[in-house]
């Protein structure tokens, strides 16, 4: 019978986290499940949890950041870059530090990504009630700001007695490591309980190695899917983030090649199949390629693998209303979204089982040939756009031309680069134009499309993949929202290449505003003037240098290519700013996206946009 060890609640929590390992399929080794803890200390966590983390710093590293939301985004990106196999914890104080995590919690929840939130909480004893930063609910004495986490957490618990960890921690780990449940977990930690001692069973801290098992499909589900596909003449596969997290790239390629099924991708699934594969159609939907969208509009059966079929993928359910859909997903909620045939299974296991059930079947030869021709045409389009180097005098570059310069800046290819982005115009341009041969070479947070994720997310990716060049691409709007982790990247010694595309405002939403008939208003800096001094001239390079990064401003594509060589040779974070044209975008590809237009307006442009909107809605699948 094992003995016991007397520890505080915080010490037990830290020791338990440090004892969790994960089996790495590639190396066969057991690696720490938690890569570390990001902490910004305050009076709600510095004494209890801070002391515990200090004592365990050699086994469970603690990292300090400059903003709570940013450090949580870094932790989330770290987990995404590890395909959800490894993760981090995040701790804050009880007030604004805790609520600063809420945006990140929603981001992790939407994207099904694991992160452990450990916000401090108010005194259970209520002796100093109200303590500094305490929110007082006049009708509920048990409430604190941490109750806000309940709706944005997959699992929530408030630890009001030390021994509650004995059940709370295994439950938390189950959610964090389960493919279907995966998402953010919040354990609210009252500061007095953090410091309380308990006699813990030593076996609670026994090292445990987690293995990510593949959920097998039910035979009857495979039979139903196979029956539907055998009737298909013009099938298309759409792969989402679940295919990457399942490490199903080889299974996707095998299925596509064996059965002649062309493959489209979502933002989260981009990179599952190499960009130059003959059956790779490119992205689907609103940010989609002309190849993918043309075939999706003609498909009779769509095999949706590991995707939650978000509106950007489906063209707000107007892109392929004629097709029947087979969904493969580990999450039953997401599997139901196809509305036709569901297979609850791991992507790789499910595709291999379906392939076995479809022995001898493949899509029409003419359909496959049509798909490969369209895919070739799309790659030619991408090459033409990204290959543009010389612009007419006085013409600013746009995102597509800058993407081309970034990918040309490697002597061989950009296949080992990881690009990171989240919001604005760039997600559409990068999904269409970025070329990656390796799973994980494209890191886009587009489930929540959170402005400010980019630099912090890039840091998390670099911490997960230090051997890769991590290139953060973002607009001036996102940079101004959250840039503090440039300083953190320098402090931690994790070099990023950051490219700031300065279009002097929120160019993406400005275009959307006008597409809906609105006047340019409150988006571009020139449309937001209230003072006498005109449009502010923001020197992003000077700002980045003030945070410890190397930085420069360039004016042309040629200057950008030269700066990228200096950035690649640098040993610390390097920021390159360049002015861009907010009016130009890649016209090829794309599909309708539902944005509600007012029924009543005095503006003729809005009235026309409303008529166009009503016509487009008639194409929606209901």
TrEMBL record:
Root EC class: hydrolase
UniProt keyword list: Hydrolase, Thiamine pyrophosphate
MF annotations from Gene Ontology: 3D-(3,5/4)-trihydroxycyclohexane-1,2-dione hydrolase activity
Domain Thiamine pyrophosphate enzyme central: 222-354
Domain of life: Bacteria
PROSITE patterns: TPP_ENZYMES
InterPro entries: DHS-like_NAD/FAD-binding_dom, Myo_inos_IolD, THDP-binding, Thiamin_PyroP_enz_cen_dom, Thiamin_PyroP_enz_TPP-bd_dom, TPP-bd_CS, TPP_enz, TPP_enzyme_TPP-bd
EC numbers on record: 3.7.1.22
Occurrences of domain Thiamine pyrophosphate enzyme TPP-binding (ranges): 423-577
Span of domain Thiamine pyrophosphate enzyme N-terminal TPP-binding: 49-133
Keyword Hydrolase applies: yes
Family: Belongs to the TPP enzyme family.
Protein name: 3D-(3,5/4)-trihydroxycyclohexane-1,2-dione acylhydrolase (Decyclizing)
Source organism of this protein record: Dyella acidiphila
Gene (name only): iolD
């Amino acid at each position: 019978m094992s003995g016991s060890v007397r520890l505080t609640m915080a010490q037990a929590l830290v020791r338990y986290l440090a004892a969790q390992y994960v089996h790495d399929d590639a190396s066969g080794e057991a690696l720490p499940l938690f890569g570390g803890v990001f902490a910004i200390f305050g009076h709600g966590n510095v004494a209890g949890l801070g002391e515990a983390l200090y004592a365990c710093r050699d086994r469970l590293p603690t990292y300090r950041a400059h903003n709570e939301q940013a450090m949580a985004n870094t932790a989330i990106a770290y987990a995404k870059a590890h395909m959800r196999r490894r993760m981090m914890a995040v701790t804050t104080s009880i007030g604004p530090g805790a609520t600063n995590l809420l945006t990140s919690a929603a981001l992790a929840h939407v994207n099904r990504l694991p992160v452990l939130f450990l916000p401090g909480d108010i005194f259970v004893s209520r002796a100093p009630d109200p303590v500094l930063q305490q929110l007082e609910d006049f009708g509920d004495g048990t409430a604190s700001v941490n109750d806000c986490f309940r709706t944005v957490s997959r699992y929530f618990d408030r630890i009001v007695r030390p021994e509650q960890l004995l059940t709370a921690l295994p439950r938390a780990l189950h959610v964090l490591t389960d493919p279907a449940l995966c998402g953010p977990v919040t354990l609210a930690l009252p500061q007095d309980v953090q410091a309380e001692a308990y006699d813990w069973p030593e076996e609670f801290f026994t090292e445990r190695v987690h293995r990510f098992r593949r959920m097998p499909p039910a035979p009857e589900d495979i039979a139903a899917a196979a029956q539907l596909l055998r009737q298909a003449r013009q099938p298309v596969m759409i792969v989402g983030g679940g295919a990457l997290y399942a490490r199903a790239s080889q299974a996707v390629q095998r299925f596509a090649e064996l059965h002649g099924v062309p493959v489209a991708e979502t933002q989260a699934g981009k990179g599952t199949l190499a960009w130059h594969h003959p059956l790779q159609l490119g992205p689907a939907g609103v940010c989609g390629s002309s190849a993918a969208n043309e075939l999706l509009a003609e498909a009779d059966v769509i095999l949706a693998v590991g995707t939650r079929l978000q509106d950007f993928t489906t063209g707000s359910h107007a892109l392929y209303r004629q097709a029947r859909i087979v969904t493969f997903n580990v999450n039953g909620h997401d599997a139901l979204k196809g509305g036709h045939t569901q297979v609850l299974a791991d992507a790789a296991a499910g595709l291999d089982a379906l392939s076995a059930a479809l022995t001898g079947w493949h899509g029409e030869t003419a359909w496959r040939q049509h798909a490969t021709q369209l895919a070739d045409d799309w790659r030619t389009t991408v090459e033409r756009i990204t290959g543009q180097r010389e612009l007419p005098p006085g013409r600013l570059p746009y995102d597509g031309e800058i993407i081309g310069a970034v990918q040309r800046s490697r002597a061989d290819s950009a296949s080992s680069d990881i690009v990171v982005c989240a919001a604005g115009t760039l997600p559409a341009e990068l999904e269409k134009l970025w070329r990656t041969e390796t799973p994980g070479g494209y890191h886009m947070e587009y489930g929540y499309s959170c402005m400010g994720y980019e630099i912090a997310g890039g840091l998390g990716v670099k911490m997960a993949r230090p051997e890769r060049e991590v290139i953060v691409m973002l607009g001036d709007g996102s940079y101004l929202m959250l840039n503090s982790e440039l300083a953190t990247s320098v402090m931690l010694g994790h070099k990023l290449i950051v490219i700031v595309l300065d279009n002097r405002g929120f160019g993406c939403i400005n275009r959307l505003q006008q597409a809906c008939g609105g006047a340019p208003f409150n988006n571009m800096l020139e449309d937001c003037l209230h003072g006498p001094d005109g449009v502010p001239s923001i020197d992003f390079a000077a700002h980045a240098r003030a945070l410890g990064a190397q930085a420069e401003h360039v004016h042309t594509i040629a200057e950008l290519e030269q700066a990228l060589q200096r950035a690649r040779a640098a040993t610390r974070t390097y920021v390159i700013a360049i002015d861009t044209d907010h009016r130009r975008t890649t016209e090829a590809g794309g599909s309708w996206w539902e944005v509600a237009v007012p029924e009543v307006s005095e503006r003729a442009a809005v009235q026309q946009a409303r008529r166009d909107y009503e016509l487009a809605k008639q194409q929606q699948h209901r």
